[in-house]
Amino acid sequence: MSQEDMALELHMSISNVSRLESNKYELKAADLFKWLKITNNPDVLMALYASIDVATSLMTSGATSAVTGAIIFLGGIL
User: Fold this and answer.
1) Predicted TM-score of the model (pTM)
2) Fewer CB within 10 Å: N-end or C-end of the chain?
3) Name one Pfam family in it (predicted).
4) Which residues are within 8 A (CB) of 13 and not within 5 positions of it... i.e. 6 or more apart?
C-alpha cells in the first residue's frame, strides 16, 4: 500500500504517514487500530500487546510478503 493510499484511509496527510514511518510523528491508538483494520493485520496487534518482536511473530505465523509494508510502516513506531 502506498503512502498516498494509507494517508487517504487514515484521513491524514502523506507527510504525516512519512513521519510515522521515520518515527518523527507519534502514532495515536485510534490511528493504530485504523491501520490494523485497513491492512487486516490482527497478528501485529497481538504481537505488540504481548511484547513480541513483530517481524519474528509474522515470519513464524507464515505471513505473506504483503505484511512487509506493515513491518516497514511500524518500523518507526517500534
Assistant:
1) 0.55
2) C
3) HTH_3
4) 7
User: Measured between alpha carbons, how far is residue 44 from residues 14, 16, 47, 60, 70 in Å?
Assistant: 22, 21, 5, 12, 8
* Domain definitions of the chain by residue range: 3-75
Q: How far apart are CA 35 and CA 30, in angstroms?
A: 9
CA dihedral 18, 78, 74, 17 (to 10 degrees): -20
DSSP structure string for 11-45: TS-HHHHHHHHTT-SPPPHHHHHHHHHHHT-HHHH
* Cα distance between residue 7 and residue 9, in whole Å: 5
Neighbouring residues of 26: CB distance < 8 A, sequence distance ≥ 6: none
